[in-house]
Amino acid sequence: MPVTVVVRTASAPSGQAAGAVPALTFDGSRIVIGRGSGSDVRLPDPSISTRHATIRATGNDYAIVDEGSTNGTWVGGVKLLPQSPRVVKSGDLVRVGRVWLELTIGQKAPTPDLGLATRDLAFALVQRAMDAVGDDTVAKVRVAEGPDIGEELRLVEEGRAYVIGRAETCDLPLADADASREHAVVARRGGQILLRDLGSRNGVFLGESKLAADRDVVWRAPTMARIGITVLALDEPVSAALAELEAAADEAMREEDIPPSPGPLALEQEREHEHEHDNGGVPSAAPKSSAAPSVAAAAPIAEVAADTSRMTRGARPKKRGWSMTDVLVVTLALGVIAASIAGLVWVLR
């Protein structure tokens, strides 16, 4: 039975719809969770060990095992002993280092091309973190040698084919007589950069290898590409940061680093989306919010509740002080009473 691992403490990576949650679905006997590039669930956080934990199929159930990680593996509020399997059920919240995961077990199609999806997830999580602190995350093709040395082509748009060649209309025009008018294209798809020869006269070289015409090839730094006498370098800030994170030593967590449990509302929006899909795109009558209210949002609600409770006990008249009229009336009344008493005493004498 497939198991889905949902990254609960990350918002939607770039390219996903707002409210979407990063998730991978597996249908294998063992799933490795860790920071290393060989992990099935690749989480680029220094609080997570290279091989942190594994999820193992045990008959019709799944069990999670801590693999001797630095910061431990937690199911709910219980820390697991290393190498001691614990059976998990659908909806369980698991914490590895600083990251909360939710496990859902059920009939869901496994994620296609898991190797690529795993890398794209790690890439997207690093990109989100870099965006949050204002770092430049855009991949760039840079002219390292040739007549146009220093020129750059920023690969801003996902999936767009950027043309490199001698024509002025190219995205990266080259003053290189050995380049064809439209020599090659480069495109960014997820965490990959793809390079393709457009059937040029002199070909495209990636490292020492000449590319076959009209076939996409993955281009990874620090390998250089060559068009004519022009040498192109690839700068990938996100990939570089991802590599640094994976090579770093484990970071021991402090008590204040522990994130709060995300609560039981992880997949409400995804389930709502699936329900809309089942209904032909019609939203359900009462969709539930997947986000807990903030402190700022809760404060006015508390004030309204206090006013309502006072109203249910009934309104009480406001007390007021004595006016001059009240004082005169009371004084006259006392005078009449005193005169009456004096008259009564005189009669009885």
How confident overall, as mean pLDDT? 80
Q: Specify the overall morphology.
A: elongated
What Rg is obtained from the alpha carbons, in whole angstroms? 35 Å
What order do the SSEs take from the amino end to the carboxyl end, as H and E? EEEEEEEEEEEHEEEEEEEEEEEHHHH
- Largest beta-sheet characterization: 6 strands, antiparallel
State the separation between the terminal residues, measured CA to CA.
112 Å
Outline the low-pLDDT stretches.
11-19, 269-320
Percent range for β-strand residues: 25-35%
Structure in words:
The protein is of the alpha+beta class and 349 residues long. Helices cover 24% and strands 26% of the residues. The protein has helices at 114-132, 237-247, 268-278, 295-312, 324-348; strands at residues 3-7, 23-26, 30-34, 41-42, 53-58, 61-66, 73-75, 78-79, 86-88, 93-96, 99-105, 140-145, 152-154, 162-165, 172-173, 184-189, 192-197, 204-206, 209-210, 217-219, 225-227, 230-235. It has a 6-stranded antiparallel beta sheet, with helices on one face. It has a 6-stranded antiparallel beta sheet with strand order 13-12-22-21-18-19, with no helix packed on it. Strands 4-3-5-6-9 form a 5-stranded mixed beta sheet. It is elongated and about 140 Å long. The protein starts with a strand and ends with a helix.
Features of the shown structure:
5 helices; alpha+beta; elongated; 6-stranded antiparallel beta sheet; 349 residues; 22 strands
Give a nutshell description of this structure.
This protein has 349 residues and is of the alpha+beta class. The chain contains 5 helices and 22 strands.
